[in-house]
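Many introductory courses stop at the sequence. We go one step further.
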Amino acid sequence: MEWKTDWGLRGRMAFTMFLLFALYVVFVGALTVYFGDFLFPLIMLGGFSIAQYFFSDKLALRSMGAREVSADEYPDLHRRVERLSQQADLPKPTVAVADTQVPNAFATGRNKKNATVAVTTGLLRALDDDELDGVLAHELAHVKNRDVMVMTIASFLSTIAFFIVRWGWLFSGDNRQGAPVIVAILVSIVVWVISFLLIRALSRYREYSADRGAALITGKPGALASALMTIDGRMDRVPKEDLREEAEMNAFFIIPIKAGFVGKLASTHPSTENRIERLRDLEREMETA
């Protein structure tokens, strides 16, 4: 099956981004009240946006303890990434490895030419050749769909809203600014909650699309389904200390860290069962094509 544009993904992304844009227009208005003028919030948000756009990949790798590795260190991994990149019609991304028991992988980077695919040593030990290809292809599909860039941009103002909710009360002691600050905090709460739900809905759909992309790249949907079952089963055996350390990277992982009821409620990924079911359906579709 040749690569086809996933118009469902694009449509949902466009609709979600439209809703987020409308929401953030209100938010910028709240920041204007918060700071007393319109120019400062725009300068502040623009500066943070540019910084995040150019440095989010480095921050993600650092937070995971991942480092770029050479072909001499991991020759097989580099060969796989290069081969799969060619099949996906992508430039070969940087390859990184994180030394952790958590069996997982993620992609980061602002565009196709500045992307990084990272895997953990736990993942390399857990999967066979076809399963590993499936996971790497899944991450390359994220790169091809520009998911990392879209999700980073979509989540930025939501993060700012969260910080205002958390720290805005520090400025409310000034009687002259107390009322505007309280209004800004209340608006930020609404912005954060709504954008939180919209972004996670978008994130769950992009996982389905990346699964489909991986199947089209490798031609083996069953291999990725098998990898998901292997990873999901091994996650329960990883020490809780390691799970807590990696929890903030959930949106980037191929399998999210499970963190009890709250973690499931705010999941960035569909359930493994649903993903496997869709991959099995795609496998049957490819066999009869």
